């Protein structure tokens, strides 16, 4: 029996219906580039600011074939070339341009970026230019030739460039454009800074010709005894072997590639990932030519009535919303250290949950949060009134959703994919978001789906949640600013909530503004006392909501927003932070911390 058991301990099921690359729903975006050999293309890039897109269009507004991407140099004194990257200004990558150069603080338009690098050709490898994020639209050129474009400011994209690289010197040029447009996602109106630039890292990633492109390794829904998934192999052939091992669990299985994908399943009893013990395992994937290592955690997530169950147990999500804005210096977060400062503050606040608003944060942020035991809500910038009737807008949103799930599907910490934030009710909006929900479920049927609903216009004494979108999601997010945008602070403690849905509700936003260091009466706007009172009375309100499964008040730290001009108070900052942009904690921080540390443990 023991023998049979030990033979059975490690087994592989090669299902008769293998997934093809198309069927996974993902592109070939390389998974876990950190475990790859790569050339970093970070550091200073030469830049040309081009508000009229002179480097792209001629005076008849036709696309030029010798634009700035050619990186031309004067060869004789009579040459006329009206740009020169070599003598131009420079910007740091990763980074936004707004906080690096005073004259670009409000700039929205095109900036050309150029970087030189060295490459040694190896006929056994492929090379990919991989961008972790560029806001918003980018066109990428290598050695003067266009290699592709991307739309969307917060998700990764790549181009295979093996045949376009030269031995020795190469140069890459990126046209970055952050102009807001009505049809974009987000649209023209947003309450955060429209930071432009190559905001996250750029890499030249090398892989063997036949390589592991992507993989998904998780517990199936509601099952803690089976680890299953798939590995997609590029340039392999049917019958190739893929080995998946988890040494700490003494697991080692072989799967076989069919149509580019090897499916596997193994019996295992991992220690489950959870906030108090964020256990991850080293997982090693091998083919005859390639090897990848990742740290993966295993957990289940589901809902039961109005409860959220992590690993089968009811959990209350004590959270905070976070924008990916750098502490102390503003601008986009660009380093692991900056991520850690924000996350340490959330820890100090007593959180087990973070809402990464309003767009996918960097992979570094997600991975650091996972190590620290935060449950994560991750979202795409389907924000406010985007063009729900526009098919291209839908395709764009769907693509951003797909890229977000593709990059982070192996992160146990992420339990909620959020489709949208505060979108106005209409037929078009409903079917737009329902279609996104369907796409998300097709790509990943293990996590919960949510959306933050706008309840500002709801009644004063009793708010009934009946937005029809509530039907499509697993968990209902509610943004409500009692005591700030609607009602007095005293009214909040008496405010009642009811729901048409038997589903968990997360109060995904609640809060008010305060300027750190400004003191006064608790009914005086912008004082720390006022903000503290908003928190006190809203906490009382939340104690009375029996279907409340968690909260993520707005927001950890003051953040830049061009909707916030009030001189000497806002000065271009949304002041709803519990901490100022300089790292100073306001009174409300301690009110929320007390609630988290003393209740719901
Ligand atoms: C909201 C939005 C958030 C804003 C916040 C505010 O409802 O979802 O993006 O920043 O309110 O401060 O008004």
Report on the structure:
By secondary structure, the chain is of the alpha/beta class. Helices cover 17% and strands 30% of the residues. The protein contains nine helices and 32 strands. It has an eight-stranded parallel beta barrel. It has a six-stranded antiparallel sheet with strand order 3-2-4-9-6-7, with no helix packed on it. Strands 1-10-5-8 form a four-stranded antiparallel sheet, with no helix packed on it. Strand 6 (137-142) and strand 7 form a beta hairpin. Helix 3 (336-348) runs parallel beside helix 4 (363-372), helix 5 (391-408) runs parallel beside helix 6 and helix 8 (528-543) runs parallel beside helix 9 (587-598). The radius of gyration is 25 Å and the shape is globular. Mean pLDDT is 95; it is low at 1-18. The structure holds (2S,3S,4S,5R)-3,4,5-trihydroxy-6-oxo-oxane-2-carboxylic acid. (2S,3S,4S,5R)-3,4,5-trihydroxy-6-oxo-oxane-2-carboxylic acid is lined by residues 191, 358, 421-422, 479, 509, 554, 574, 576.
């Amino acid at each position: 029996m023991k023998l049979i058991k030990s033979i059975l301990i490690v087994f592989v099921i090669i299902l008769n219906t293998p997934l093809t690359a198309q069927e996974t729903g993902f592109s070939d975006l390389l998974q876990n580039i950190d475990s790859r050999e790569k050339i970093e293309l970070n550091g200073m890039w030469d830049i040309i600011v081009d508000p009229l897109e002179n480097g792209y269009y001629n005076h008849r507004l036709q696309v030029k074939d010798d634009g700035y991407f050619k990186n031309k140099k004067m060869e004789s004194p009579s040459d006329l070339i009206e740009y020169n990257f070599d003598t131009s200004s420079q910007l740091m990558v990763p980074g936004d341009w707004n906080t690096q150069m005073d004259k670009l603080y409000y700039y929205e338009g095109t900036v050309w970026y150029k970087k030189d690098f060295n490459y040694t050709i190896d006929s056994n490898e492929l090379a990919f230019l991989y961008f972790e994020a560029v806001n918003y639209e980018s066109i990428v050129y290598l050695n003067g030739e266009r290699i592709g474009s991307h739309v969307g400011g917060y998700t990764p994209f790549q181009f295979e460039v093996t045949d376009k690289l030269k031995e020795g010197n190469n140069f890459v040029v990126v046209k970055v454009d952050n102009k807001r447009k009505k049809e974009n996602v987000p649209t023209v109106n947003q309450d955060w800074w429209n930071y432009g630039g190559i905001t996250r890292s750029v890499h030249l990633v090398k892989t063997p010709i036949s390589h592991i492109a992507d993989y998904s390794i998780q517990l199936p829904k509601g099952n803690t005894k089976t680890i299953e998934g798939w590995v997609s192999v590029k340039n392999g052939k049917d019958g190739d072997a893929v080995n998946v091992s988890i040494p700490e669990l003494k697991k080692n299985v072989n799967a076989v590639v069919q149509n580019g994908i090897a499916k596997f399943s193994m019996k295992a009893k991992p220690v489950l990932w959870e906030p108090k013990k964020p256990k991850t395992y080293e997982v090693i994937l091998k083919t005859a030519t390639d090897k990848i290592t990742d740290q993966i955690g295993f957990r289940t997530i589901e809902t039961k009535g109005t409860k959220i169950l992590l690993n089968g147990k009811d959990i209350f999500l004590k959270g905070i919303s976070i924008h990916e804005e750098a502490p102390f210096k503003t601008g986009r977060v660009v380093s692991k250290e900056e991520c850690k400062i924000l996350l340490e503050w959330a820890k100090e606040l007593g959180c087990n949950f973070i809402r990464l608003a309003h767009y996918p944060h960097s992979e570094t942020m997600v991975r650091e949060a996972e190590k620290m035991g935060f449950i994560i809500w991750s979202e795409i910038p389907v924000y406010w009134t985007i063009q729900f009737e526009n098919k291209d807008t839908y395709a764009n949103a769907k693509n951003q959703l797909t890229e977000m799930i593709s990059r982070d599907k192996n992160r146990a910490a992420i339990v909620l994919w959020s489709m949208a934030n505060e979108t106005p009710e209409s037929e078009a909006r409903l079917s737009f978001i329902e279609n996104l929900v369907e796409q998300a479920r097709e790509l990943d049927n293990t996590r919960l789906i949510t959306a933050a609903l706008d309840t500002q216009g709801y009644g004063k004494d009793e708010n009934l949640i009946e937005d029809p979108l509530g039907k499509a999601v697993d968990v209902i997010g509610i943004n409500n600013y009692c005591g700030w945008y609607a009602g007095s602070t005293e009214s909040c403690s008496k405010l009642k909530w009811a729901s048409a849905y038997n589903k968990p509700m997360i109060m995904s936003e609640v809060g008010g503004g305060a300027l750190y260091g400004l003191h006064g009466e608790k009914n005086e706007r912008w004082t720390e006392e006022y903000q503290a009172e908003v928190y006190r009375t809203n906490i009382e309100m939340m104690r009375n909501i029996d279907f409340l499964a968690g909260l993520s008040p707005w927001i950890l730290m003051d953040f830049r927003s061009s909707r916030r001009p009030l001189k000497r108070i806002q000065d271009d900052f949304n002041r709803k932070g519990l901490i100022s942009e300089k790292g100073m904690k306001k009174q409300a921080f301690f009110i929320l911390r007390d609630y988290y540390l003393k209740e719901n443990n």
